[in-house]
Amino acid sequence: MSELNLKNPVLRWFEARLPIMSFMHHSFVTYPTPRNLNYWWTFGGILTVMLIIQIITGIVLVMHYTPTTADAFNSVEHIMRDVNYGWLIRYVHSNGASMFFIAVYIHIFRGLYYGSYKDPREVLWILGVIILLLMMATAFMGYVLPWGQMSFWGATVITNLFSAIPGVGQAVVTWLWGGYSVDNPTLQRFFALHYLLPFVIFGVVILHIWALHHVGQNNPTGIDVKSNKDTVPFTPYAATKDNFALILFLMFFAYFVFYIPNYLGHADNYIPANPLQTPVHIVPEWYLLPFYAILRAIPSKLGGVVAMFASILVLVFVPWLDTSKVRSARYRPMYKQFFWILVICCIGLGYLGAKPAEGVYVIAARILTFYYFLHFLVILPLLGYLEKPKNVPPSIADSVLKGRESDPMPARAGARR
Amino acid sequence: MAATHPETTRRDFLYIATGAFGAIGAAAAVWPLIHQMNPDKSVLALTSTEVDLTPITEGQIVTIKWRGKPVFVSHRSKKEIEEAKAVKLSDLPDPQADDARVKKGKDQWLVVIGVCTHLGCVPIGHQGDYTGWFCPCHGSHYDTSGRIRKGPAPTNLEVPPYEFVSDTSIRIG
Q1: Over the stretch A27-83, which tens digit does the pLDDT of each residue have?
Q2: How far does A112 lie from chain B, in Å, by closest CA?
Q3: Nearest CA in chain B to A278
Q4: Which residues of chain A are at the B interface, by a Cβ-Cβ cutoff of 8 Å?
């Protein structure tokens, strides 16, 4: 790795005492990235930016929000109507949560497709699952804060999941609520935790990036970096690509914020919370719908709750459930097809989660729930034995150059180090 | 000693004792931080509510707020009482006789907590396959005695602790 050559004497003095500049230089400038990374690899950077956007807009919203049952709903309306640019900041924050999940689901399916969870990236993957869980908890508690009808009843239904725990369930729920129903103490503690958890996510993200930089990035071929020919420096190559994708993503984000800011929300949340009346149709935010469908598919309370948590926890074990020696689906003809079936299965579960729990919807949700677990617990382990992978290229450079004799880039990229 | 257990020293004992002391101390210190989340004194103080029954006409269900959650006070008609009594206990997912859910001689008054035992939604009165209550969230059907008949809810609507203060009023809690 090239050394950071500081000319400014003040910076040199500082660097000798805390080598943070050379650390950043190594991590984000000269850091070697596989030269074949495609646009699916840009979502890590997009997610980092989304986290920062959510933290900044969130801190600003707290300057105007009041976390009590009497004032929460009105303070959100105050933000929307009175606070300078309050509407913009709130719409960025509320749509930002959706964008965060769009990006994270693409990021996760990218990992599943290219086998990014496999040895030596298991810990990196598990840290990612932890981030997903923290994101879900944060998003759920954030949705409660406006104290509309969906806020209140969403909070009631989700906290009641814990009452399925045998024996101590009801005591746990009372403890979570700080009362005998979702009320002011619940709102205040959700607010405190909603403020805390993003910083916890930030900490786990740092571990996630640390683990990534320690083991190195996976790439579309799934084969290891073998020489300098296989990589290019992060800056300018990956950085430029990341920035370009980020701009496209932010345009998509801006379309929602400025043109359809309430498209992903629910109209019932503009009705103040009423503990005595349940809305006819309770639905969580779209990003939780597949899990909600799994919860409702099982005809038993405890069973539904267990299945829902299991559907996330099963991801932790994917590195060991997948028995194939080949990482990338590009060289796994059967896995590639099952991957897309899984994607359709998850979208189907999301669709069913938004539908009422009756008739054909319940049956379809049961079939898809069964298939979801079948994919991870049966198909994934068996494929490693049944599938005959295609020939994997000898190196990343070979896969990119496709037999071209000379290419000036590897030499230049190599010279950087 | 030293020959048989070369790795065990008095210092190891000190390490373990120090660690155990610290762990117990930390656990004790954590308890107030956990218990502060339980219902506080002001919440516990609001545990009883009195309800005047005179304005509730036959066939009407009134919703009362008790401990922050709805309580249904149902003035049942003769037909509803008969339906509730006619059911065989073996047909019920959570077998309980209608008599056990009302006060003796006060068959017309059914008092239940209006929280679906599935995931806590408020069921809608006079609806569902058994014309008792129907929960719109996940489709649980309750009968005119508030007992679960069909759907994902595991138990009957809970009967809160209450008593008749006079013939025309009850105290819940």
Answers
A1: 999 999 999 999 999 999 999 999 999 999 999 999 999 999 999 999 999 999 999
A2: 32
A3: B122
A4: 153, 156-157, 159-161, 163, 174-183, 185, 189, 275-282, 296, 299-301, 304, 356-358
ipTM of the complex as predicted:
0.74
User: Looking at residues A226-254, what average pLDDT do you find?
Assistant: 95
Q: Which residue of B has its CA nearest to A161?
A: B119
Range with lowest mean pLDDT among A87-91, A104-108, A181-185, A407-411: A407-411
Q: What one-letter code names the amino acid at B58?
A: E
Locate the DSSP E strands across chain B: 49-52, 61-66, 69-75, 109-113, 124-125, 133-135, 140-142, 148-150, 162-166, 169-172
Nearest Cα residue to B155 out of B131, B128, B129, B119: B119
pLDDT (tens digit per residue) in A154-206: 999 889 888 888 889 989 999 999 998 899 999 999 999 999 999 999 999 99
Q: Which architecture characterizes domain B43-172 according to CATH?
A: 3-layer Sandwich (2.102)
Residue B105 falls in which region: left (phi positive, over 0), alpha (psi -120 to 50) or beta: left
Ranges in chain A annotated CATH 1.20.810.10: 32-219+232-282
> Per the CB < 8 Å rule, is A157 touching B37?
no
SS3 content of chain B, % helix, strand, coil (to 5): 25, 25, 50
Instruction: Enumerate the β-bridge partners of residue B148.
Output: B142
A&B contacts, CB < 8 Å: 88
Q: Chain B residues with CB inside 8 Å of A160's CB? A: 118-120
Q: Which residue of the set B35, B126, B138, B141 is catalytic?
A: B138
Cross-chain Cβ contact A282/B137 below 8 Å: yes
Reply yes or no on whether B141 is catalytic.
no
CATH code for residues A284-386: 1.10.287.980
Third-level CATH fold of A32-219+232-282: Cytochrome Bc1 Complex; Chain C (1.20.810)
